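Quiz preparation item.
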């Protein structure tokens, strides 16, 4: 298999950002529990640079990854950015320790989060800014109003949502154009199946988080048939599931990165796709 993200084809995000349909999720370039620095910052930066070398031009991150560490590493490794590189980030969570993710959708927090991401990423405008998770204690309209105002001010180009259900997506769409949805989705967890269908119907990008789950018999059988790893099969299945799917597998290893990107060239048969889909 060739190793280039362009083998996955392209997708238009927001109608004006064309990216290869296999991106990189920059959560795992931080420390254990997505907390603090990685074991070796130079290795993490090497992963980011290698991703871009292999055709990745969509990188997803968040201010909560580290916190701040992932965004800082992206800027250190890749700035000044290639003209076609799209960096998406998120805000709406805070961190109190490893593996802890308190939600904060207050306008005050989101205002500071957007400005902080702009500074750390060394961007004049964030191409895609996603509200990380609805805050039950804050009306959705109040949280989204900050993103809407930031878009009007030119701080962000497009608005996306994350961990939203269909009702919440509809509310958001009633307030502002939404170009992407990022929800948990993999071969084992299909809770967002109808959200994937919605994104396909409305030409929204769907970014599956935690996309690598390969513990099914259909995945293992396809891996044996093709002589590849189960994780490569899962990535190929995601790409086959919908043209609006934009997988963002993440890793802190160059070797794993190259294995993931090679999956863009893997062609599963319709029967294999159907067996994994179930």
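Solution:
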């Amino acid at each position: 298999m060739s190793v280039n993200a362009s083998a996955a084809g392209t997708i238009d995000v927001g109608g004006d950002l064309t990216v290869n349909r296999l991106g990189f999720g920059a959560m795992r370039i931080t420390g254990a529990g997505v907390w603090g620095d990685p074991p070796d910052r130079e290795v993490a930066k090497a992963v980011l640079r290698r991703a871009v070398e292999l055709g990745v031009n969509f990188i997803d991150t968040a201010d909560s990854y580290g916190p701040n560490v992932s965004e800082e590493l992206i800027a250190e490794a890749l700035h000044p950015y290639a003209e076609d590189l799209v960096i998406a980030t998120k805000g709406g969570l805070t961190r109190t320790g490893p593996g802890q993710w308190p939600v904060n959708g207050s306008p005050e927090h989101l205002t500071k989060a957007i400005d902080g991401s702009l500074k750390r990423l060394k961007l004049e405008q964030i191409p895609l800014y996603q509200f990380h998770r609805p805050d039950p204690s804050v009306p959705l309209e109040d949280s989204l109003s900050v993103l809407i105002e930031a878009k009007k001010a030119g701080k962000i180009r497009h608005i996306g949502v994350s961990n939203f259900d269909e009702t919440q997506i509809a509310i958001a769409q009633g307030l502002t154009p939404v170009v992407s949805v990022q929800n948990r989705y993999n071969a084992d967890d299909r809770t967002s199946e109808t959200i994937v269908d919605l994104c396909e119907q409305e030409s929204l990008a769907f970014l599956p988080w935690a996309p690598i789950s390969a513990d099914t018999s259909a995945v293992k059988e396809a891996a044996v048939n093709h002589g590849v790893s189960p994780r490569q099969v899962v990535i190929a299945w995601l790409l086959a599931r919908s043209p609006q799917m934009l997988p963002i597998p993440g890793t802190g290893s160059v070797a794993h990165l190259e294995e993931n990107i090679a999956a863009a060239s893997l062609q599963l048969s319709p029967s294999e796709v159907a067996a994994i889909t179930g």
